[in-house]
Amino acid sequence: MQAKSPFGFRASAFFRPSGFGLRISSALSLLAMCATLSVTAASNEVRLITLDPGHFHAGLVQKFMYPQVSPVVHVYAPAGSDLDEHLKRIEGFNTRADQPTRWEEKVYTGPDFLKRMLAEKAGNVVVLAGNNARKTEYIDRSVAAGFNVLADKPMAITPADFKLLQKAFRRAAANKVLLYDIMTERYEITSIIQRELSRMPDLFGTMEQGTPEQPAIVMESVHHFFKEVAGKPLTRPAWFYDVRQQGESVPDVGTHLVDTVQWICFPDQALDWRKDIKVLNARHWSTKLTPEQFKRSTGLDHYPDYFKKDIGPDGALEIYANGEVAYALRGIQAKVTALWKFEAPPGAGDTLYALVRGTRCQLLIKQGAEQNYKPALYVQNSSPTAAADFEQTLRLAINRLSATWPGLDLKPAGAGWEVIIPDKYRVGHEQHFAQVTEKFLRYLADGTLPDWEVPNMIAKYYTSTEAYRLSHRQR
Question: What is the pTM (predicted TM-score) of this model?
Fold first, then answer.
């Protein structure tokens, strides 16, 4: 009889590398080349459950295969286009010419899909990425039933959800299961190098405190409704444009930015949302989506009835898809802005602007036309240090980082310097999901998360949902 770990895994008598391992070797080699964390094959078998997938991120978790993960994935969801699109995406991964996967999807579509999932216990890790109106409930009920949960952001989109999420974390701890969200921005190489340079006092100094008018750290992202995923135009579900179901911009995509602020300012330190965060103000505003754009994105000729109060006099759908929040994190002033447009310019995609102010230098990420829409990192001297001395300090810093990321270099950029990052480290957004999943699998094997992760997830969702509350109060 096989033993069971406290986390619901069945300890296998042996690992079977001959078939499964060979099929994923090329995928893992690619990720290793990109300086991702390699995953040692574990004897425990992870069995995935996908619950009510409605967002393409649910599929991206399965873009590659993993030696710890069974190829059989149980899917519990209502029948409909959300499920159909998810299964088509997995089938696309299985049938692609380059590094095909071999997932076997076992699907249940009855109206009692959630109850059935909780009762059958067909797996030990629930993957959540879909309509956010019920996501926090799904999280809470899953961990209460003894499942580990890997959830796409956001895990909470309103203050009420935040309270339920706190309860879910308490339940996860009591049941000795892991609850973790997918933060892909931590795996973007430009952000990683920015963070590493901010941890070098001889170059960066210390973090500025900043003011509300001139924050010490500024994050701004621009996302697009119409885009390509896995080489094909993405069909959005209609509910994606309903902020009551998807979430407004700061509680949704803004969670990446809030996470990055915490990750840079206080690396590997636990934050207390009650003491360390003061949300000062927040606002939100709409992006208009014409009927033609809505049809192009969703394939639907008409707006569903739940959009009636969101349609303006010109017939366009007004989506509160833009937001901004200003807050203090242990006294450091931060501002986060999340914006949505319909479609990116040719050759472009989602973009990031990230400014971090130190007492000795500023670290700036830009991703506009000047950078060919690829994130570029700039270092600007903000201290009295002579230019030649600053250059020497910066080059020493880059040399230290080159031990981990060979090929880093510098070139002059106006009054500062651009950090040259080889393309081999730019694996792209879709590959980042594999990197997050690998890290989560390591945590599962260890049986624990780093001690700062849970308090910082709670701090993050407090910040984003408090921004929601303040923006609605000011509306």
Answer: 0.88
